């Protein structure tokens, strides 16, 4: 009897160990896929886990990366893992084809969680095309913006569209608003009722001209009028662009004194990388969202001897250098002006300098400087795309 019990215990132990080894191997496969396809959770989703309920292995979760799901399936098949697949590939089928959208407010707020008190992580402005990934709670939707950022937007901020409606929006004639702030009116008269406020970079459908105004249509079909001297036909504006350092700096100077807003990317308020994004967008270029992402684009500038090799329009990155105990951390970005001066959003959009002889010298920024990148020689490369080269602005 003892012999039989011993054999039973050994078999049970073996089977449990085998199951544990299989689960460990399975979780390693999942983790490797995540590290390969979705190392930055800000721009890619691969929230997948494996569980063993004692009878079967279930692999469940969600991803917006079909190629990651395909590779995971292959790896599990090669490993001879028998499992029940409960992974949802986004966009969700529950959206019934309304997986496209266009921002419908002058500035729409995106949050870290589907809740109004949640952290503001980014913004998008009127006319920006987005991808709808899934519906959350309390009227919030998980949405991806042209810079790849994935976060939560409430349904008041976006007009949902199917493929045909979205392509119709993309191919329609449009205008772009170019003043820092303004209004769209109900009539071609600035004494008439406002339809909406506007900020620099807002894009609306053009319905023609009347009495010195553009007649425009919002994504949700509201109509209104914008003063012609405050906007341009989008194609005329876009085709005229050839951004050089002078244009970048002139755009940056327009926002002097604009208050810092964590998560902000508009002339109403912006954070440091929101400032650089806005400046470059108004010169026809889509940048990555955060400073820690922007630092990975462009050409590295040699700054071993100070600022002698820097050119106006270069991006400067600040933060904490790597040590044996921690990785490098990029926390701030600025635009170089010249003679050691740079413009950035720190409390407000302001000018500081690496040059100790300047009254606006910043020892704090000088000590936190990490590296510089030249963007204007790399337009068209990853993270520095012309607006209409970005996949979100292309026909679907």
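^ Assign residues to that structure.
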């Amino acid at each position: 009897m003892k012999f039989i019990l011993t054999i039973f215990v050994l078999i049970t132990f073996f089977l449990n160990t085998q199951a544990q080894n299989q689960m460990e191997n399975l979780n390693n496969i999942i983790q490797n896929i995540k590290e390969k396809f979705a190392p930055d959770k800000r721009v890619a989703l691969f929230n997948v886990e494996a569980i063993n309920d004692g009878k079967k292995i279930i692999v469940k979760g969600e991803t917006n990366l079909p190629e990651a799901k395909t590779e995971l399936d292959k790896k599990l098949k090669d490993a001879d893992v028998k499992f029940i697949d409960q992974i949802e590939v986004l966009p969700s089928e529950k959206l019934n084809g309304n997986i496209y959208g266009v921002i419908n407010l002058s500035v729409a707020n995106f949050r870290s969680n589907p809740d109004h008190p949640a952290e503001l992580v980014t913004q998008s402005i009127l006319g920006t095309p987005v991808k709808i990934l899934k519906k959350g709670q309390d009227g919030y939707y998980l949405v991806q913006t042209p810079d790849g950022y994935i976060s939560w937007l409430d349904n008041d901020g976006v007009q949902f569209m199917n493929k045909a409606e979205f392509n119709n929006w993309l191919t329609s004639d449009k205008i772009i608003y170019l003043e820092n702030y303004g209004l769209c009116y109900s009539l071609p008269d600035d004494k008439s009722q406002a339809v909406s406020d506007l900020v620099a970079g807002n894009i609306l459908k053009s319905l023609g001209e009347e009495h010195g105004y553009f007649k425009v249509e919002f994504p949700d079909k509201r109509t209104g009028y914008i003063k012609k001297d405050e906007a341009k036909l989008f194609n005329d504006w876009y085709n005229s662009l050839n951004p050089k350092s002078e244009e970048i700096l002139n755009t940056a100077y327009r926002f002097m004194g604009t208050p810092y807003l964590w998560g902000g990317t508009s002339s109403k308020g912006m954070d440091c990388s929101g400032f650089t994004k806005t400046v470059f967008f108004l010169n026809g270029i889509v940048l990555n969202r955060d400073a820690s992402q922007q630092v990975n684009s462009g050409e590295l500038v040699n700054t071993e001897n100070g600022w002698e090799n820097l050119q106006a329009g270069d991006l400067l990155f600040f933060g904490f250098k790597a040590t044996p105990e921690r990785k490098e951390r990029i926390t701030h970005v600025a635009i170089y002006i010249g003679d050691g001066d740079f413009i950035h959003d720190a409390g407000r959009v302001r000018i500081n300098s690496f040059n100790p002889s300047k009254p606006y010298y910043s020892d704090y920024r000088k000590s936190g400087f990490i590296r510089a990148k030249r963007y204007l020689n790399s337009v068209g490369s990853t993270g520095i795309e012309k607006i209409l080269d970005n996949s979100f602005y292309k026909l679907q």
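The CA atoms of residues 46 and 63 lie 4 Å apart.
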